[in-house]
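Researcher: Please predict.
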Amino acid sequence: MVASRRLYFLLALGVLPFLVSFFWAPAASAGFAYDLVLLLAVALDACLTQRPRFVTGARDVHERLSIGRSNQVLINIYNQGKAALSCRLRDDFPKSMEADVSEFRFDIRAGAMASLAYSLTPRQRGSYDFGNINLRYSSRLGLLWISRTVKAPMAVRVFSDLKA
């Protein structure tokens, strides 16, 4: 779990009562109460949010890619839980290849599948390895980002233009 921008903003607001307490002492009590309520909200958010095990995925890419051409990569994400999710995804593709998308942002309904496609352009021949599929989704109250890593190692080979 990672704190969201919303949580950082709310934490920053919690500093205000302590600043005011330099001039008016009872404001410190309000600051402690605010921090306690925020802590409870984070705990509640973590409890209400769908567990990562309900989100799975798979990558589909040809084992042989063409040098200098756009090669399609398809990622399917499955939400087997009972809540819709607002997600961000990064694929660990070989860094020596050029991709047209570095991060996906998408929503997926409960019990649904999302298909995400991007193109890779290899510049050199050889063997390359894909890594994991890295997914984050927002918690129910938006205070946290829940991380899910889908193990999807895969080796591909790049050859001279196979379509010419």
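Model: The chain is about 20% helix and 40% strand.
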